[in-house]
Write a structure and sequence with these properties.
The complex is a heterodimer of chains A (308) and B (277).
Chain A (H helix, E strand, L loop, with lengths): L3 E14 L4 E14 L3 E5 L6 H8 L7 E6 L2 E2 L9 E4 L11 H11 L4 H14 L4 H4 L8 H13 L5 E5 L7 H16 L3 E5 L3 H7 L2 E6 L2 E7 H5 E10 L3 H10 L2 E5 L2 E6 L2 H13 L3 E9 L2 H11 L1
Parallel strand pairs in A: 3-8, 3-9, 6-7, 7-8
Antiparallel strand pairs in A: 1-2, 1-4, 4-5, 9-10, 11-13, 11-14, 12-13
Chain B lengths: L4 H17 L2 H19 E6 L2 E7 L2 E3 L4 H34 L6 H5 L5 H35 L5 H27 L2 H19 L1 H7 L3 H13 L3 H12 L8 H23 L3
Antiparallel strand pairs in B: 1-2, 2-3
Helix pairs in contact in B: 1-5, 2-5, 3-5, 3-6, 3-7, 3-10, 5-6, 5-11, 6-7, 6-10, 6-11
Classes of the chains: A alpha/beta (308), B mainly alpha (277).
Chain lengths: 308, 277
Amino acid sequence: MPEYAIETENLTKVFRTRWPRRELTAVDNISLRVPVGSTYGLLGPNGAGKTTFVKMLLSASHPTAGRAIVFGRDSREPGARAPIGYLPENHRFPTYMTGWDMLDFYGALSGMGASERRARIPGLLSQVGLDERAHHLRLGKYSKGMLQRVGLAQALMHTPRLLVLDEPSDGVDPVGRRQIRDVLHALEQKGVTIFLNSHLLAEVELFCREVAIIQKGKLALSGTVLELTSGSGYRLEISGASETLETELRGRARTAGAANGMLQLLFASREEANQALDLARANHCEIETFGRTRSTLEEVFMKTVEGE
Amino acid sequence: MSPRLIPMLALVKDTFREAFARKIFWGFAGCCTALLAFLVFIMRIDVVAGALATITIFGRAMPTTDVQGLVQQTQSVIAMSMYFFGMALSVFASAGLVAAVFEPGRIELLLSKPVSRTQILLGRYIGNLAVVAANILYLTFGSWIIFGIKTGLWGGGYLLSSLFTIFVFGVLLAVIVLIGVLWESAAVAIMATFGIMIVTPILAQRATIERLLSADWSRDLVTVFYYILPKTSDISVIIRHLILNEPVDSWMPVWSTALFGAVVLAAGILHFRRRSF
């Protein structure tokens, strides 16, 4: 059993036009590893190269250099794509099909037999929140949210081990988003690797354990959400400090402020924060909060993107 | 069923479903049914002791020849109509069916499945060919049975002619596929295929053209184009010979056209395998 669901080695894609002769490097030498069973988010501003990266994973686009490996096999081999379930962003599902037909068609393309498909379709459509009426309704009559749901069902049809989702909750109402998240959580519990490409940073922060940020085709940052959002300092909030103590603590802190009768202090190291805490306790102050500072994923993202 | 066949059959079935939804299949089937109804109800042939007594169309008696000649001529007219007009309609309808596969948002999902690109393209090609073939066979078999019942003549040449029509459509479909893969444009595919359908009958008259050309290189050019391109006009002559039970002079137009189709289809598959979407 391979250790990584996705492994890319110096993956590069250069688009070339013959006339006028131009080159655009959409993905530049990206090496990434997504462990089996993880929930991984791919972030980046528009035009950063995320979609091209995903297309190369699925072999819809051929790399100029490097390679993409899925569960130990080069994704260009058709068999390597068997464990992948994919929901594209700007999908164009055949409008002449019903929800049932669509699952039947894509299930067959994944090599599922007719009886297996018939047995799986009703439960799957219900699981993504599509009622029985929708099963036999043409996709042309579906709303955007319904199309996302049936698209997700399509991706799950052959019980994949890796789900690649491009903006899965795009156009879905808050209730639907919650349903989709619940489906994804259940899959995560079963050990399915989920690779999420989304602009909704809060959604990624809520769901993914690891993220990578792509900027101008290059891998700008990667790591666990916990690591990336944990700040470098420590926060201490106290109340009931005397003027002398406040002056003393302000002198030791990197930054200090006061609000709602509380003294708010930020320290650069754990040692400094602990010394300040001991001092406050010795002076019978009330400790309101003490802990490591944290940033949101959005702050990390903006810092990374604007820092380029 | 072999697991390798499941995706292929799904792709063929999907092409049929799309042809149904776009009313292409029903449009063809409607035209064929109307022609069959004409043969059943409007054209009355009275045969007395193996010789033709009268032929009546819209209640009017027509001048008659022998029964076999009449049937073969009528079959020949139907086969030629199907060959030229039916072919033009089929090209027009199929160009959209092929180009639709390459639409962004659809092709990526197809390519993400554990199916080779060759299978995807061949599945669409076979499906499209099957849609047109089903209608050609429906019209040919239907009219063959009607003529057989009305006249007692069951010659096989007419049935065989339908296979040649399907074959030529298969070659033109290869052109549509190649252009679809190269430019994803139904309009360009239609123009190129119609171009072939217009140019090849002209090239078939190469003996006359060569007499009109003074330069050697221009005569050579005409000959090269004649041998490279499919010989739709020459094959229509072969079809006529088959229906009229006449000997066929040369089968070269058939095998050279088959070679053209195979090369063009292979080029389409090769380019599709290399393309990034």
